[in-house]
Amino acid sequence: xxxxxxxxxxxxxxxxxxxxxxxxxxxxxxxxxxxxxxxxxxxxxxxxxxxxxxxxxxxxxxxxxxxxxxxxxxxxxxxxxxxxxxxxxxxxxxxxxxxxxxxxxxxxxxxxxxxxxxxxxxxxxxxxxxxxxxxxxxxxxxxxxxxxxxxxxxxxxxxxxxxxxxxxxxxxxxxxxxxxxxxxxxxxxxxxxxxxxxxxxxxxxxxxxxxxxxxxxxxxxxxxxxxxxxxxxxxxxxxxxxxxxxxxxxxxxxxxxxxxxxxxxxxxxxxxxxxxxxxxxxxxxxxxxxxxxxxxxxxxxxxxxxxxxxxxxxxxxxxxxxxxxxxxxxxxxxxxxxxxxxxxxxxxxxxxxxxxxxxxxxxxxxxxxxxxxxxxxxxxxxxxxxxxxxxxxxxxxxxxxxxxxxxxxxxxxxxxxxxxxxxxxxxxxxxxxxxxxxxxxxxxxxxxxxxxxxxxxxxxxxxxxxxxxxxxxxxxxxxxxxxxxxxxxxxxxxxxxxxxxxxxxxxxxxxxxxxxxxxxxxxxxxxxxxxxxxxxxxxxxxxxxxxxxxxxxxxxxx
Length: 558
Hints:
Transcription Regulator spoIIAA; globular
């Protein structure tokens, strides 16, 4: 097999042009993101109802495999907030053996998806469903951390949202002011320090400062040591979990949910990495790596893993150039386990709760809600039902119902695009400004068109057609005359395209949108990305606007 085969892991493809200079950058980036992942891995482990070392073991084993075998150059894998809620529910009902079975089955499903070429199928999940998931999961993660953040003197809290909030409200008066101070201090560092400098990971600074304060002042707060007995020093222990055949059928829905979330999160993270680096990931190779990582994780006491968007972005900003940085990140955490694990026993749980509050806020994508609200009642209904079921019912139920609703909306949108009407003189006259025949495109214009409904499941075609922006002229016109319908996912895809063009020094104009797309393109959130002045009624108006835009570009360059 040739090393240029695009279906090989990106780590092998990267070695074709690997140099010492690239290794130095990967080394520094890997160590940096490893330090960032340290508190997150422990916090995700605790929030998931398992031990902090389970989160670290996952980051080491799964993180290494995802980087070594994956289809993205800079993706960082490990435990993430997406799994916290469902993992905690599985552990509460079926114990660690049940969690191991779910993780293993999810790994097999991911492996099958990658080997059969279904990696691109993740794009068929519409944006309102994705936002509903992330909003709901963010709320649930934050709610699970209130107890430790306030240092409340209560035992185990219920796994259901409403009973949990009821119990917390009843005992809020028992808060520990020292724990609250540590939590607030953590939040202050995480919010303020990145605005001053990004050279030092804020989460590590918060961890060191608050742990130091806890030790120096002998604060009476709960720590990793007091609750879990600390973290054992040494390699992640290999052990085949106890499997119970009678649990397989009840756990299948949870395994599908974990596999879906892992696929979705990893693909979103890989897309973010692509947009930051200009690279292009291989979704099927990535899913194979995700599957193998989730098969291996429970054999070393780990939990489900996937691509981590924030850690991936940190990796890229730190200078990563290849998957070696992700492998270094895992090795860094392994060295910490071998050398400094006992020190983790002094870390206060209030600090980890503060870290997870910030994680929950960042993963929530709250700004996207305003855009969905402007898309009409169907998008709002899909988002609201998915969000409500995620928070108040069960994530597995939310996945099924959200996808079913999305499918119905998709059918509805397609049905709306069918029209039957007579051709009149007025119809012919109205169509003349849109006709391309006889028009000469100036050299500073690239003309693209979208033909048919631009809904979830089709938006990847825009990404594929515009992968190489260097081949495009300074002004790009996107002709929408034959685009019959659009939804939230399509809107988001055009917004992302506009951002990519702007970052490359190019301008985007839209023209000829029909009634349904035209209405949605007028929403304020979309206009912030494209500009009202860059949405034209027809191709002639777009060409006139392109001439003015090009003149402005040349004046700015001169």
